[in-house]
Specification:
Elements lengths: L1 H28 L10 H4 L6 E6 L3 E6 L6 E7 L10 H8 L4 E5 L8 H11 L7 E11 L1 H9 L7 E5 L20 E6 L11 H7 L4 E6 L14 H14 L2 H7 L11 E6 L2
Parallel strand pairs: 3-4, 3-5, 5-6, 6-7, 7-8
Antiparallel strand pairs: 1-2, 2-4, 8-9
Length: 273
């Protein structure tokens, strides 16, 4: 009898322990201490192995080693004094999701012209037949962000993602803000001392007459995207998947109920979405 009672007690304790473990795991699964940022999955590398190299002398290309049929194209403009290598990890990250990324080899991308020139460079490449030239994104940082807005006057641009764009000169014409042809993901850093949101991104958000998702990362300085795009990697990747590949799950981050609208650590404003 004593042995039977002992076995019964051990069994009950084991059941309780397993139950507690299951409850704990369930809590983590729904965000009880496990995060819950819906953009996190897009900050992890995509499924494509990547490569990079020059396309002529004007552009550096980051792409899947084997470019899939219908791959969208993303144009990139560097910040003042920067080069594609300044942002190489971030550009490779986009490429790992099946995008061909063409970065203009210029330290002064404010006019957007050098970015647009990369379209023709890619057209002349050995993999051009796999690129969907009806699906072209434009993005850039700082001066290159201002250049992105300039480039997006071109009807070939499908969507944009200016990152902390500087719009007070350096080739940027403020009239371009009234001439946008494509939806925009506008990214800011609240502690940006060089292209602060109040003077640079807020006027853009107010003036452009296209759908805009404006996301300001709290505490971020001007150099947040240098290298691997920092905390901008996940949300920008999701934007491209939504806009250039028609990914319905990524679209839910920005549209309708907008699962990205309550991101912790971000201030979000949007219009037209």
């Amino acid at each position: 009898m004593k042995l039977a009672r002992f076995k019964s007690s051990v069994l009950r304790k084991s059941v309780v322990a397993v139950g507690a473990l299951l409850i704990s795991s369930s809590a983590l699964a729904v965000g009880g201490g496990g995060g819950g940022d819906p953009t996190d999955q897009y900050a992890s590398p995509g499924s494509y192995a990547t490569t990079s190299g020059s396309e002529g002398q004007s552009c550096t290309i980051y792409r899947p080693r084997s470019v899939p049929a219908g791959a969208p194209l993303i144009l990139w403009g560097n910040g003042t004094g920067g080069s594609p290598s300044t942002y190489s990890d971030g550009l490779e990250h986009w490429a790992s999701y099946g995008f061909v990324v063409a970065a203009a080899n210029t330290a002064n991308a404010g006019s957007g012209e050098e970015m647009l020139d990369c379209i023709d460079a890619v057209r002349q490449s050995s993999y051009s037949s796999s690129v969907d030239f009806s699906s072209i994104g434009a993005s850039g940082h700082s001066q290159g962000g201002g250049g992105t807005i300039m480039a997006a006057r071109d009807s070939r641009i499908t969507a944009t993602a200016p990152v902390q764009p500087y719009v007070l000169g350096l080739g940027h014409d403020a009239d371009s803000q009234d001439e946008q042809t494509a939806p925009m993901l506008l990214l800011s850093g609240s502690n940006d001392a060089l292209a602060g949101p109040a003077r640079n991104q807020s006027p853009v958000f107010s003036r452009v007459d296209v759908p805009v998702f404006w996301a300001t990362l709290n505490g971020a300085g001007h150099f947040e995207p240098v290298g691997d795009f920092g905390e901008f990697a996940g949300i920008s990747t999701a934007w491209w998947l939504y806009q250039l590949q028609g990914d319905s799950a990524a679209a839910e981050l920005f549209t309708g109920p907008c699962t990205a609208c309550d991101l912790s650590g971000w201030d979000i404003e949007r219009k037209g979405l």
